[in-house]
Amino acid sequence: MAGLVDFQNKEGLKSFLESMEVECNYHSYHKKDPDSCYHLVDYLEGIQKNFDEAAKVLKFNCEDNQHSNSCYKLGIYYVTGKGGLTQDLKAAASCFLIACDKPGKKSLAACHNIACLAHDGWVNEDGQPDLGKARNYYTRACDAGYASSCFNLSAMFLQGAPGFPKDMDLECKYSMKACDLGHFWACLGDGIEKDEAKQLHKEQQKSVQFLTFG
């Protein structure tokens, strides 16, 4: 359809966009088509720059339709306080959890983000880091080929923590996998001798990959 539109004709373009909005709304709310809802978000963000309305559509499509990509993007809205939403990292974690569990283009990024929030103490009510949950979700994303999660796992095993002992064998395993997946910092650290671990520890503390927004 786009090929029939004269984008130099302002009136024709306006009419096309209005028709597109009506069609998106119809398929989103009347047909209850999750993918159409997500396309409506693209329209609201990209054409209208109406992020408040986009947030409402994302909320509907995540909560009612359990649409993975919508839940991921809604989580980002909560992290940044976009679209008139109050910044709320616990709400973001709930959105990422749905996105991680449902198939979608951003599922692995969502799993990584849950791990980051758990790692930083934003998942539990007591505000304490949940290293077990962080490890589980980093592992889930890493096993599926998400380089940043592999790198963060290697950093966790290098640094250690109360109840989470250091393990240089696992650090090496995940660092090498992250490197194989193209992670720059992991490749930089591959093959390091144990007596150089302190320096790598400092570098990894600086470069642990936190929330993914793209």
UniProtKB/TrEMBL annotation:
Purpose: Required for assembly of mitochondrial respiratory chain complexes.
Compartment(s): Mitochondrion intermembrane space
Keywords assigned by UniProt, alphabetized: Repeat
The protein's name: Cytochrome c oxidase assembly factor 7
Gene source species: Cebus imitator
GO CC, one annotated term: mitochondrial intermembrane space
Main localization of the protein described in the UniProt heading: mitochondrion
Family to which this protein belongs: Belongs to the hcp beta-lactamase family.
Coiled coil residues, start to end: none
SUPFAM superfamilies in UniProt: HCP-like
The organism's place on the tree of life at top rank: Eukaryota
InterPro entries in UniProt: HcpB-like (IPR040239), Sel1-like (IPR006597), TPR-like_helical_dom_sf (IPR011990)
